[in-house]
Amino acid sequence: MSKYESINPYTNQLIKTYPNATDDEIEDALTAGHKLYFTWRKQEPSMRAKQLADIAKSFKKHREDMAKMMTMEMGKLYKESLEEVDLCINICEYYAKNGVKMLEPTHLDTELGDAYYLKQATGIIMACEPWNFPLYQVIRVFAPNFIVGNPVILKHAHNVPGSAQLAQKIIEEAGAPQASLTNLFLSYDQIDKVISDMRVQGVALTGSERGGASVAQAAGKNIKKSTMELGGNDPFIILDDADTNTLRSVLSDARTYNGGQVCTSSKRIIVVESRYEEVLHELQNVFSNLKPGDPMDEATTLPPMNSQKAADKLKAQVDKGVEAGAKVFYQFPEIEHDGAFFRPMILTDISENNPLFDEELFGPVAQVYKVKDEQAAIDLANNSSFGLGSSIITSDVKHGQQLASEIETGMTVINGRWITAPELPFGGVKKSGYGRELSELGLMAFVNEHLVIDVSQNKK
Ligand code: NAP
Predict the structure, then answer these.
(1) How far apart are the C-alpha atoms of 293 and 305, rounded to whole Å?
(2) Tens digits of per-residue pLDDT, 115-156?
(3) Domain 235-414: top CATH class
(4) What is the domain partition of the chain in residue ranges?
(5) How far apart are CA 129 and CA 229, in angstroms?
(6) Are the C-beta atoms of residues 161 and 18 closer than 8 Å to each other?
(7) 73 catalytic, yes or no?
(8) Predicted TM-score (pTM) above 0.85
(9) How far does residue 229's CA lie from ligand 1's centre (Å)?
(10) Is any atom of ligand 1 closer than 6 Å to the C-beta of 232?
(11) Which CATH class is domain 4-230+432-453?
(12) Pocket flag, ligand 1, residue 207 (CB < 6 Å)
């Protein structure tokens, strides 16, 4: 892990360094979180639902501050930062409105007595989050667990410490009890220590395979429940009958939103022969019209990557792939700027033994594959270690739904690119992880489904 530092990737200037958490700070967070868990166990979730609605209002009030901080720390377009804050407001409102009902006991049909299960809080949840959506990733875990009554300790990515602190401040300003969300600047060793603490009952990580494997191992060793939202190499399948206007509109940002740094970005564009040339030229049109510049500027459509290190890593990955035979169909012209810019590119001819074939490229690189037919498209889509999201572009929606059931991913969008909304479950299979965030499934991730049965009602 690097140091906790805010470095503006547009200027590559260091803005601020943050010291790591001390042992005393960690102990204080665990003590306060545990105390709050016991307080919350005695309260109705409806009380927290009101507070969560106030948290949504607090984010509305600080919408611009939060968005500016995120853009400054990881370089995303300011307008996309504003969209991210709005999405988080929706998530808080969704759980404020629906969470209490979701937590009602579920009756069970049995002849053995009067039976139901409660959905109870379990304790402190540790959330390890990535920089790519600095607020959304936090709120996906925080909002449902707040309603459930599980306090959250946050370990955010090293490059968005200011966003982590600001999120906690906005939540506290809304009147949420202290320890509802506690941000700690932890080292990897300290993460293991927190996970092994008896007061912590679950771990949610969103990030890469590398981070996921390490944190899941610590959770497993300590018998703690975990959810892993990891990387993706999402197939975007274009069938013969794809509607041209739909295709054009979806391709316009399927690979470039958030600078291409989206886990569910359409990374592998899989096209049937008859549409291959058209898709390549459509993508070239999108990529070549991007406007690099200051992410705060409304006219900019190509922001820097989140850090110079990330831009260098992506370049090294691509260079290796090209050395192994991938062809560069298009590359954006040189960008004369000191920021962490990466020249977007379109790659073709990626063979199965190319290192890129089964690697996630986390930035504006489209990998385009030509296949002979629909079956070959499905086979290629499933020939991956990852299984997060997928897309199918077709005019025959019923057929698209049938094909969706044949794809080994956690999510499929028909006639669109990736999507997220509070009411839709988010997550994957294979090396993309396990568990779901958002929707009712996300709310249940860390509850105790506590069976209660009165056997004096035994009807047998
Ligand atoms: P990352 O390096 O795995 O980091 C994610 C978080 O885990 C950070 O807080 C990081 O801390 C921490 N971490 C990393 N290695 C660790 C280790 N060995 N032990 C303990 N903690 C560790 O991921 P990233 O590169 O920041 O994020 C991009 C990845 O996230 C991509 O693969 C993307 O696809 C994935 N992602 C998945 C989803 C999803 O919902 N499935 C959503 C968004 C992003 P430091 O920053 O201090 O290293």
Answers:
(1) 11
(2) 999 999 999 999 999 999 999 999 999 999 999 999 999 999
(3) alpha beta
(4) 4-230+432-453, 235-414
(5) 10
(6) yes
(7) no
(8) yes
(9) 9
(10) yes
(11) alpha beta
(12) yes
